[in-house]
């Protein structure tokens, strides 16, 4: 009797165990099905050539669905060692163009050399540092790697790693 | 096996095979509901009516909707709204019902809280009800994304971003949920699947369990009187209908529900045809544009109170970032209602007006949630941020105080009604 | 009685929430602007005055916080300058007496002033000198055919536009001496310039059709820049050139009537800067009548089921009322047995 009982226990447990393993594997499969596709991941890196940029003129590009502001600084603009991306002999402002308050996209005003956010009146200077209104911190710098005169967005190069702790 | 005779008619034929007579009794004519109730007890049926409207209108929308970021906006705003005969009607009915159903859910919820219909055996009703609230929220959120307008996009962007605040896995989780680095085509198709298949299935199952969980503890009544349902139903069946404290679900209870539902539908259809902006935000008639933010981003009105709890904490405290405190408070707000029955330490069931301290607590909660709702929509500037902060803190304090307040009430009422 | 009391409580709180999140919140989010004013002189000066007032307030705030005072001061200076030049300009325009305009002389002036170098007048057998692609590439936007201009636009506005397009169109923020507007200012042909302006306006008015269909107004006033794909109409300026000229592609207007609503469109078209400060869209100077027609066209395109919706609504709500009354009577009958 006792032997029979334990055998049934063992069978039941084995059955349940096998079913659980199957379930766990199917969950893994389901999780993976939700993962971003390889093509989406590959599109996560954007290369941009900085050399054709005119000093003082803002260029906006898209990286991972976000606007990226590229601004080659003119001589009058203050250099910001802890934030500027230095390529060749020029300093560039490279920031994610989303207001750090609530994620609106600020506009560039060349006359006053400012980024102004229409949503709640936040303002940033040409280096992307917040100067007025509700934004809690400067505009974020996207991960980048310098490759000659080109910038690879999405990859963390040594220059980016140096900026991050300071920003 | 049951003995099958030659049927005396269609009804009998089915009865022999499906026991339809017994079934009707169990579900309808001998399902007993207390007589001492008011129109707030009809909200359950109103919800069923609205849910049915959502399913039916949804079926027709599904025939023409295209879940693709390139096609979605035009399939809704041109094909459905302008080409399909009565397509605009289904869209308006769907959009307005989605908003109206939350109004009724909130009334239903607060009725439950007021009359104490969540304890002494009724915990499962409350828990399944709150699970339904959660599922309906997910359903509303996923559905709002589908027209792919500006608010669809930006609300999705902001809300999915919230998961980024979860420690360690946050950033990866956001990308996993979206299927892309930003809200994009994969996000739209997966939320479409959730909206039209998975979530409605879960909701239907939960509704069945919610109804079933009413059977054993029975429906509560206006005075929270403990009714002996067997005795009272015997009286009713014996013909003492006036004396009995209960009525059958069909036709007595439902006749009242039909009237209440009718009155509600007059209001609902007025909104559908003439006053729909509150449910179909004008900004969403602008196509989604990841490169342009609308001036104000806010969730639909029924999410505003929890959104404001999130936003209310706008300054860092020591090492904790404002965002993280807000997120923790937001998490708190979303689960705290779930455990309501276990926070109420008063074992007696009684309506709020017979529980001196709880009564005050109830109205304070209602007012606080309304303040949160209103300030959740306003731009977070100047005085607004402070009011939002105070209201968010009050919300949490109210729930922290709930066990003590109810305990105190229990002592004073001495455990008797 | 108790049920009515409960109903009262439910309605009260519902209303409070509604008023809070709809009318009240929207009044906070979209500050009130003055209604559309088709007297463009008044409108321009009022608007510039308003901007100065705002800049003053901002300076006060900056001073009290002692932050960014310099920026605010510069802003105020710029706004004051703009107010001065605007006032001067429109006071000059006010001296033009349009009633003295002579259409025949105007036709001559029009030819001699070189307008036909860029503009066509199809109705008078003068096609545009360039095809759309070339015009897009040279100007950024295709110059309008002027056959209907006298009908679409306000006369005073036209005179102001010819004299100084940047000021009349309110695009001072986009153009400067180094980046001039594609349409040059008119400095007169040597005679009385105000008379010459009045003549040109009289000429444009004399050749304009007496009536235009809503869709023709749209075509002539809006369609050089805007698509409205639900009406299958697309801008005649080439897209790339246009985006470059305007800073971004002007939005498709198919659903504008639902996304912005009539009231907003009224003030926006009348003076875009008032609703959307810094926008690249010029103030086009439509008369009240033309503007109504544009809005009608937008409604016919973006909300074409409006009439059906409103008439069906009456029937459905009526049906539900009857349904409810019968439901009530039935309920009373059933409950009589148990009460």
Topology summary:
The complex is a heterotrimer of chains A (167), B (417) and C (339).
Chain A: H1 2-34, H2 38-42, E1 46-49, E2 58-63, E3 66-72, E4 85-87, E5 90-96, E6 107-109, E7 114-116, E8 123-125, E9 130-132, E10 144-147, E11 150-153, H3 158-163
Chain B: H1 10-18, H2 20-29, E1 32-34, H3 43-62, H4 72-83, H5 87-115, H6 123-145, H7 150-162, H8 170-178, H9 185-215, H10 229-237, E2 246-248, H11 249-274, H12 304-312, H13 322-336, H14 340-343, H15 356-377, H16 383-413
Antiparallel strand pairs in B: 1-2
Helix pairs in contact in B: 1-2, 3-5, 3-11, 4-5, 5-6, 5-11, 6-7, 6-9, 12-13, 12-15, 12-16, 13-16, 15-16
Chain C: H1 2-29, H2 40-65, H3 69-94, H4 103-112, H5 132-139, H6 149-152, H7 155-163, H8 165-169, H9 193-207, H10 214-221, H11 239-246, H12 256-270, H13 272-275, H14 288-302, H15 306-336
Helix pairs in contact in C: 2-3, 4-9, 7-9, 10-14, 12-14
Specify the helix fraction band of chain B: 55-70%
Secondary structure tally: strands of chain C: 0
Number of helices of chain C: 15
Mean pLDDT of chain B: 93
Describe the biggest sheet of chain B?
A: 2 strands, antiparallel
Radius of gyration of chain C: 27 Å
Number of strands of chain B: 2
Summarize model confidence as the mean pLDDT of chain C: 93
Strand content of chain C: under 5%
Widest sheet, order of strands of chain B: 1-2
What overall geometry of chain B do the principal axes of the alpha carbons give?
globular
List descriptors.
heterotrimer, B: 417 residues, mainly alpha, Cytochrome Bc1 Complex, Chain C, 2 domains, two-stranded antiparallel ribbon, 16 helices, C: 339 residues, globular
Describe this structure in words.
The complex is a heterotrimer of chains A (167), B (417) and C (339). Chain A is an alpha+beta fold and 167 residues long. Chain A folds into two domains: 34 residues; 118 residues, 3-layer Sandwich (Rieske Iron-sulfur Protein). Chain A has three helices and eleven strands; from the N terminus they run H-H-E-E-E-E-E-E-E-E-E-E-E-H. The mean pLDDT of chain B is 93. In chain B, strands 1-2 form a two-stranded antiparallel sheet. In chain B, helix 3 crosses helix 11, helix 5 crosses helix 11 and helix 12 packs antiparallel against helix 13. With 339 residues, chain C is mainly alpha-helical. Chain C contains 15 helices and no strands. The mean pLDDT of chain C is 93. Chains in contact: A-B, A-C, B-C. The interface between A and B is medium-sized, with 23 and 27 residues.
């Amino acid at each position: 009797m006792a032997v029979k009982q334990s055998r049934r226990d063992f069978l039941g447990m084995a059955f349940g165990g096998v079913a659980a393993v199957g379930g766990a594997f199917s969950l893994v499969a389901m999780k993976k099905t939700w993962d971003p596709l390889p093509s989406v991941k590959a599109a996560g890196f954007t290369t941009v050539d900085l050399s054709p940029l005119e000093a003082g003129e803002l260029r906006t590009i898209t990286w991972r669905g976000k606007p990226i502001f590229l601004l080659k600084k003119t001589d009058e603009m203050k250099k910001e060692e802890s934030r500027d991306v230095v390529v060749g002999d020029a300093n560039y402002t490279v920031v994610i163009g989303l207001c750090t308050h609530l994620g609106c996209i600020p506009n560039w005003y060349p006359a006053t050399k400012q980024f102004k956010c229409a949503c709640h009146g936040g303002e940033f200077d040409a280096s992307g540092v917040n100067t007025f209104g509700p934004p809690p911190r400067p505009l974020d710098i996207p991960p980048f790697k310098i490759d000659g005169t080109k910038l690879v967005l999405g990859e963390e190069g040594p220059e980016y790693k140096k900026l991050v702790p300071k920003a | 096996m049951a003995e099958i005779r030659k049927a005396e008619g269609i009804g009998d034929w089915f009865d022999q095979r499906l026991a339809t007579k017994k079934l009707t009794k169990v579900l309808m004519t001998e399902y007993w509901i207390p007589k001492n109730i008011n129109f707030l007890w009809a909200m359950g049926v109103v919800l069923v009516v609205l849910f049915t409207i959502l399913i039916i209108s949804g079926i027709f929308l599904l025939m023409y909707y295209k879940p693709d970021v390139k096609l979605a906006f035009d399939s809704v705003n041109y094909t459905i709204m302008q080409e399909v005969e009565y397509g605009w009607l289904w869209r308006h009915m769907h959009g307005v019902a989605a908003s109206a159903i939350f109004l009724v859910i909130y009334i239903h919820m607060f009725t439950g809280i007021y009359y104490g219909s969540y304890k002494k055996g009724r915990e499962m009703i409350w828990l399944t009800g709150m699970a339904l609230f959660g599922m309906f929220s997910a359903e509303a959120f996923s559905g709002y994304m589908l027209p792919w307008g500006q608010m669809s996009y930006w609300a999705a962007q902001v809300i999915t971003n919230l998961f980024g605040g979860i420690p360690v896995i946050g950033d990866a989780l956001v990308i996993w949920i979206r299927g892309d680095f930003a809200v994009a085509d994969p996000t739209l198709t997966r939320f479409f699947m959730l909206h039209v298949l998975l979530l409605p299935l879960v909701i239907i199952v939960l509704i069945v369990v919610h109804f079933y969980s009413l059977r054993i503890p029975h429906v509560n009544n206006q005075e929270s009187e403990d009714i002996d349902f067997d005795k009272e139903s015997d009286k009713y069946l014996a013909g003492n209908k006036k004396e009995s404290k209960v009525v059958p679900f069909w036709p007595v209870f439902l006749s009242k529900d039909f009237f209440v539902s009718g009155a509600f539908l007059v209001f609902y259809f007025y909104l559908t045809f003439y006053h729909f902006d509150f449910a179909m935000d004008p900004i969403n008639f602008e196509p989604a544009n990841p490169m342009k933010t609308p001036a104000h981003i806010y969730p639909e009105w029924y999410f505003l109170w929890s959104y404001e709890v999130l936003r209310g904490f706008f300054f860092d405290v020591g090492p904790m970032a404002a965002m993280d405190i807000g997120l923790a408070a937001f998490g708190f707000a979303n689960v705290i209602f779930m455990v309501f029955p276990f926070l109420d330490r008063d074992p007696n069931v009684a309506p709020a007006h017979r529980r001196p301290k709880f009564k005050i607590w109830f109205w304070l909660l209602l007012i606080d949630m309304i303040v949160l709702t209103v300030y959740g929509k306003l731009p977070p500037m100047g005085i607004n941020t402070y009011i939002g902060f105070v209201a968010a803190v009050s919300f949490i304090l109210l729930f922290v105080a709930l066990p003590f307040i109810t305990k105190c009430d229990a002592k004073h009422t001495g455990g008797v009604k | 009685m108790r049920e009515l009391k409960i109903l009262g409580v439910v309605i009260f709180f519902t209303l409070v929430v509604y008023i809070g999140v709809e009318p009240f919140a929207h009044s906070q989010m979209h500050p009130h602007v003055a209604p559309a004013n088709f007297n463009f002189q008044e409108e321009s000066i009022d608007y510039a005055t308003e901007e100065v007032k705002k800049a003053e307030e901002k300076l006060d705030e900056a001073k009290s916080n002692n932050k960014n005072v310099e920026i605010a001061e510069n802003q105020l200076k710029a706004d004051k300058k703009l107010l001065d030049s605007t006032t001067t300009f429109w006071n000059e325009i006010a001296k033009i007496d349009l009633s003295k305009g002579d259409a025949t002389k105007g036709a001559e002036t029009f030819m001699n002033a070189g307008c036909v170098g860029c503009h066509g007048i199809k109705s008078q057998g003068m096609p545009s000198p360039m095809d759309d692609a070339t015009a897009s590439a040279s100007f950024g936007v295709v110059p309008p055919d002027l056959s209907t201009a006298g009908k679409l636009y306000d006369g005073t506005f036209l005179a102001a536009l010819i004299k100084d397009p940047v000021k009349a169109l309110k695009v001072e923020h986009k153009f400067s001496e180094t980046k001039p507007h594609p349409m040059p200012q008119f400095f007169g042909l040597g005679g009385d310039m105000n008379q010459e302006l009045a003549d040109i306006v009289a000429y444009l008015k004399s050749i304009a059709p007496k009536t235009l269909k809503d869709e023709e107004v749209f075509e002539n006033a809006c369609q050089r820049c805007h698509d409205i794909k639900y009406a299958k109409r697309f801008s005649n300026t080439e897209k790339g050139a246009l985006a470059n000229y305007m800073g971004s592609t002007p939005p498709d207007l198919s659903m504008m009537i639902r996304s912005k609503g009539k009231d907003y469109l009224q003030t926006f078209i009348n003076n875009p800067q008032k609703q959307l400060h810094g926008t690249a869209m010029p103030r086009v100077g439509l008369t009240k009548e033309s503007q109504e027609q544009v809005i009608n066209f937008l409604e016919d395109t973006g909300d074409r089921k409006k009439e059906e919706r409103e008439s069906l609504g009456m029937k459905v709500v009526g049906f539900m009322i009857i349904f409810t009354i019968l439901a009530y009577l039935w309920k009373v009958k059933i409950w009589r047995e148990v009460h």
